Amino acid sequence: MAAGGAHGGDTPREIEALIDLMARLPGLGPRSARRAVLVLLKRRGALMAPLAQAMAQVAVSARDCRICGNIGTSDICAICADDRRATGEICVVEDVADLWALERAGVFRGRYHVLGGTLSALDAVGPEELRIPDLIERVATEATREVILALNATVDGQTTAHYIADALAATGVSVTSLAQGVPIGGELDYLDDGTLGAALRARKSF
Amino acid sequence: MGLTIATLTLSHFRSHRAARMALDGRPVAISGPNGAGKTNIIEAVSLLSPGRGLRRASADELARRPDAIGWKIRAETAAPLHELETFAEGADSRQVRIDGKPAPQAALGRILRILWLVPAMDRLWIESAEGRRRFLDRMTLSFAPDHADAVLAYEKAMRDRNRLLKDMVSDAHWYVALESQMADAATRITANRHHALSRIAAAQQGAETAFPAAELALIGPEGEDIPEDLAPALAANRRRDMAAGRTLLGPHRADLAARYATKGVPADQCSTGEQKALLISLILANARALAADLGTPPILLLDEVAAHLDQHRRAALYDEICALGAQALMTGTEPGLFDSLGNRAQSFAVVEEGGMSKVSET
């Protein structure tokens, strides 16, 4: 039901095409895409034109950072270009969304390395696709003290973490990973058994 | 009385278009002619635990023909009350909802503990290790619901490693990463299995039962030992595994060895009747151990189990089930097979009418 004609008898082809594109966005289906397009159409001047302009601009200017893989508008992203962030720490994340989460929290002052996924032999995602050789080179050339693995606690995430740790073993750089345990403001009662076990094993003196 | 199923509803599931059974916690005797749809009922119950159920069917095989519009199984448990639903639509994989919320399959194992015995398992001791391993893991899961997570994690990493082996990838870091994930999961899998075997062994000792005790042991393929730390063993085996195109060592190759204790005879050399008796004995011991550990016996699904037992053994089986207080769902072609249960059990009759199963309490 996604193709032409599906959105109501005589909807013009251009508008249908817009709805179909919109429906490909995460979190949107055909119905919500139709609603979003309708809002845009009603507010053409105030919303649609500026949105179209902003998208056209960013589509031209967006770049993957050559060093860390972060998305920005120049070949070197703002974080990699900022000398104050040359702390000798590189935080390895799966996705730009994870980088943004850490930046929002404002807790990390070093630089990043964005893998863009996790190792998966079945999906033909190997170390090259994840820019792991680039990371190893960065560690050698950037005077790195510590590599922090901030990867998801899934089988694939942990396999990737093991891979990087093993591949960096020869460089002598310190490799750490995020702790697992009780979330701030969290209640023990709501934790799953695995997290509770990890939290207990990683307990610290009070 | 432990955690039992209070209502069971099947919609468009195999031969059942709409069946509803209200259960009161007593054992359940289901009788009816061949092909009426008895086993489909207990298969539906088996799908209230993680995995593919007692026929190992895929989700799309379970839909009623010819409509094939998807199927749904719904159960309410008593004390504590939970609502369990599992269903599939079209060719999609099966989904689980617990108390109205989507949940992973593994979460089912934390609510109901379910064990089964089906006629296909009569040859368990003589056929390949795969069936025995599955039997062992079903027992293990009943003691350790997180066993399912460990098995899934292990298999996920192993499938990736097998792909590397097939593609002749030689990146050692990648192998090390996957092998350490496999080794972590393998340690949990083996510990869970040993725990289950030791609980079952303890429950067999000094038990008053009409069924013969079995000595059980966890062994590797071709009787080899499975190394305690799998990671170095896998690393050493890479060349051999690459030639085979798959992982030859690990808990996915383990086997369950059984011996008829009082005779000292390996299970595969026992008579057909003795082999069946050993299986029943293990299921009952498992149930006793769980009842002792959790204060509640598991749900037992016994397909056509009465048919192969003489009258004396049959009566003994019923007595032991009743003594356990287990909700056992049993099938048989003749209602007479369940006579000695009397009113200690609920009775249902299943008949086929116009291509559809009809279930009624008798």
Automatic annotation (TrEMBL), chain A:
CDD domains hit by this protein: TOPRIM_recR
Underlying gene: recR
Domain Toprim: 88-183
Role this protein plays: May play a role in DNA repair. It seems to be involved in an RecBC-independent recombinational process of DNA repair. It may act with RecF and RecO.
MF GO annotations: DNA binding; zinc ion binding
One BP term from GO: DNA repair
Listed PANTHER family: RECOMBINATION PROTEIN RECR
Gene3D superfamilies registered for this protein in UniProt: 3.40.1360.10, RecR Domain 1
Source superkingdom: Bacteria
InterPro entries in the record: DNA_Rcmb_RecR, Rcmb_RecR, Rcmb_RecR_Znf, TOPRIM_dom, TOPRIM_RecR
Native source organism of the sequence: Paragemmobacter kunshanensis
HAMAP family named in the record: RecR
Family to which this protein belongs: Belongs to the RecR family.
Protein known as: Recombination protein RecR
TrEMBL record, chain B:
Protein keywords: ATP-binding, Cytoplasm, DNA damage, DNA repair, DNA replication, DNA-binding, Nucleotide-binding, SOS response
Gene Ontology molecular function: any one: ATP binding
Keyword check for DNA repair: yes
Gene3D superfamilies: P-loop containing nucleotide triphosphate hydrolases, RecF/RecN/SMC, N-terminal domain
GO cellular component, one term: cytoplasm
InterPro entries cross-referenced by the UniProt entry: AAA+_ATPase, DNA-binding_RecF, DNA-binding_RecF_CS, P-loop_NTPase, RecF/RecN/SMC_N, RecF_2
Domain AAA+ ATPase: 24-357
Main localisation: cytoplasm
Subcellular location as annotated: Cytoplasm
Function, in words: The RecF protein is involved in DNA metabolism; it is required for DNA replication and normal SOS inducibility. RecF binds preferentially to single-stranded, linear DNA. It also seems to bind ATP.
Similarity comment text for this entry: Belongs to the RecF family.
Protein name as it appears in the record: DNA replication and repair protein RecF
Source taxonomy: Bacteria, Pseudomonadati, Pseudomonadota, Alphaproteobacteria, Rhodobacterales
Gene designation: recF
